[in-house]
Write a structure and sequence with these properties.
2 domains, three-stranded antiparallel beta sheet, 40% helix, elongated
């Protein structure tokens, strides 16, 4: 299963299912599988510094500052082209920061 644009896409053999939610996609795959055991592999979306900055509404320099302070999520991997993070980790980080008292809310 993998997220793609606004839908989740799953594949069982040559059959493909699409759903608006991860749970819906998994349910459709289970129906297709019937009594056959089902092993589901979810491919995470990875983002670099630019994408992380866009998700958070920041610029790249601010992301770099948080990384250097050790106040940013741990990267999933460090590649020759730079660090990458799981998109869901960056989104959770942004949601957590928005919930903290005393933080300005962007309008």
């Amino acid at each position: 299963m993998r997220p793609q644009a606004d839908v989740w896409v799953g594949r069982l053999g040559t059959r493909e299912v699409r759903s608006r939610s991860r749970a819906g996609c998994l349910s459709a795959l289970r129906r297709l599988a019937g009594d056959t055991p089902l092993l589901v592999e979810v491919t995470p979306q990875l983002v670099g510094v630019s994408e992380a900055a866009e998700i958070l509404g920041w610029d790249r320099r601010r992301v770099a500052t948080y990384i250097s302070r050790g106040a940013f999520p741990e990267p999933a991997a460090a590649l020759a082209s730079g660090r990458v993070w799981r998109r869901e980790d960056i989104e959770a980080f942004g949601a957590d920061r928005a919930r903290r008292p005393g933080r300005r809310i962007r309008r």
